[in-house]
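pasting input
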Amino acid sequence: MPAMPKVTHLDMISGLSTAVDLVYPALHGHHRRTAFIASQIASALSLQPVEMRTLVVAAMMHDVGALSLAERIETLNFEESETAEPGRDWHGEVGYQLLKGFGPLAGAADLIRFHHVEWWDGRGHSHRGHEVPLASHLLHLADRAAVLVKDGREVLGQAPEIRRRISEQRGRMFVPSLVDGFLQAASKESFWLRIGSLSEESAFFDSLEPVALDPEGIDAFAALFCQIVDFRSRFTATHTSGVGAVAPAMGKLVGLSAEDCGGLKVAGHLHDLGKLAVPVEVLEKPSTLTPRQFNLIKSHSYHTYRLLRASGMGEELTQWAAFHHERLDGRGYPFHRVGEELSLGCRIVAVADVFTALTEDRPYRKGMTKEACLTVLNRMADARALDPDLVALHRTGFDELDGARARGQAAARDRYHAFWDRVGVAVN
Ligand SMILES: [Fe+2]
Ligand SMILES: [Fe+2]
Ligand SMILES: [Fe+2]
Ligand SMILES: [Fe+2]
């Protein structure tokens, strides 16, 4: 059984940022690109290291609130309306509300909140009486410059036009000194060439001191990601919280150490991270899925796998989270692993996922009774989909496991309602 992996704060943020970019493939790399541009402007203006760090973190996840497809498409347009339109700055507010309660990201949350809000000349969106930090203005400029860079075209050739469009907004949309910083950074070919070749492990991170996460830190990040995945759809608003409660409870029943149970909680919280690649419309579609939509959904556990590997979560914990649709008989997906290739952690998360899906209430149906749930689980064990010993555990330990699930999901439901209340959107 693995110890918690050695990951840094930035590894986790980088993983989440890539995950959010998955929501809309045309925006692939948008967060990384915005972060790079912001860091270059900040360097030109000699920003302090602490501010630089907060700025880069904010840029890496600034559109985290734009998790529905429609919102993402809107963020791609460079032009912003000159008059305040209620709802236009919605994703900044949603992002702020998602992140602000999470200590390590509270500073970034403040910057994200206003990244589309206020123009320098006072037009644009309403800032609702809040003072907009200069770093938010900087993030706004970096974001707008990032959307002007078009993929698939030679990047140096685009530079003069982008510089012109940003300069045009000096003293209008953008703070004059920030435009000057941008123009200074963007006068070098290397600035543009680096934009054209930012990889998933890009070098601009190297200038920031890495902060290693302890197990509690990893756990807190996983809980945040779980919330970001769950809150996209009211149908499954507490699902991964449920799995994150059931998996460690199962670990305890089979006698695993506290450390391993902690790993199972993290894996449960992260198992459906790849669902960020699936549009909400597809996740919630009531009618039959098209083959393309079905394939999108089927890809989610693979995306979980690659995102967690890229975040440095370590192979074993990554497998615990990402192999939850594999089956002992090798007919699962996406790797078709067979029984002996699936560790106990993988098997536990797989059973916890099915158990949670069967017993949780959804807006359109009630959760199954104990007997109905055990019938389904037994059938799946007989078919060599799930581990029979772990399924047997549910006959004796049903109340304990169901209690853990119910408590985990009740707490998550409270957070879900409190979150939308703060954003100002009614949900049922
Ligand atoms: Fe945005
Ligand atoms: Fe953006
Ligand atoms: Fe899944
Ligand atoms: Fe799931």
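fyi The chain has 20 helices and no strands.
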